[in-house]
Design goal:
Helices cover 50% and strands 0% of the residues. It is mainly α. α3 crosses α5 and α4 crosses α5.
Length: 142
């Protein structure tokens, strides 16, 4: 009886381990280091460039691992009739996107991460989000 129970426990553990390994094998880990809240380019290079590329065109080193190609962030204004969609960009940074680029999970929601960098300073959080959005506005294709 004990032998049978041990065998059943091992099989259950193996099934759980394989299931967990399958869920995590395609996850992309982006190391998050504290950046200056006043430097939108530095934040972009730290948080966005791994997927969207240093030029913002969607060809970052992690893009190959995604099921859907990352958005070309230099075309946001062009896709919005020539006007940079700042409200939409801020919304995506705070709440995520509806694009399922990473298979079972959505684009990372950066607001909680950026907020934790300045947990006691709501103004710094808004500064981070605003400066990142303004940097994206500066890289728009004319």
């Amino acid at each position: 009886m004990l032998k049978r129970l041990s065998l059943l426990a091992m099989v259950a553990g193996l099934v759980l381990a394989v299931g967990f390994a399958d869920q995590t094998k395609n996850k992309i880990i982006i190391p998050v280091e504290k950046t200056s809240p006043s430097d939108g380019k530095q934040m972009f290079n730290s948080y966005c460039a791994p997927c969207h590329g240093a030029d913002g065109r969607g060809h970052g080193p992690a893009a190959q691992a995604l099921k859907t190609q990352p958005v070309d962030l230099t075309l946001l204004a062009r896709m919005n009739h020539g006007k940079y969609p700042d409200t939409h960009v801020l919304s995506v940074l705070q709440f995520g996107a509806e694009i399922k680029a990473h298979g079972s999970s959505e684009m990372p929601v950066w607001e909680p991460i950026l907020s934790n960098m300045n947990a006691t300073d709501a103004q710094a959080k808004q500064l981070r989000l605003g400066n990142l959005s303004r940097y994206l506005e500066r890289i728009q294709v004319k």
